[in-house]
Amino acid sequence: MSERPLLTADPKAGFLAHAEEIRAAIERVLMSGHYILGPEGEAFEREFAAYQGGGQTISVANGTDALEVALRALGVVAGEKVATVANTVTATISAIQQIGAQPVYVEINSSDCLMSAAALSAVLARSPDIKVVIPVHLYGRMADMPAIMAVAEQHGARVLEDCAQAHGAEINQRKAGTWGHAAAFSFYPTKNLGALGDAGAIFTNEAALGDRARLLRQYGWSKRYVSEIPGRNSRLDEMQAAVLRVKLKYLDEENRQRRHLAAHYTSRLSGSGLTLPPEDTFSVSSCWHQYAIRLPRRDALREALVARGIHAGILYPVPLYKQPAYAQGVKLPVSEQACDEVLCLPIHPGITRDDVDRICDEIMKYFRP
Ligand SMILES: *Cc1c(COP(=O)(O)O)cnc(C)c1O
Question: Which residue lies with its CA nearest to atom 15 of ligand 1?
Answer without folding.
Answer: 164
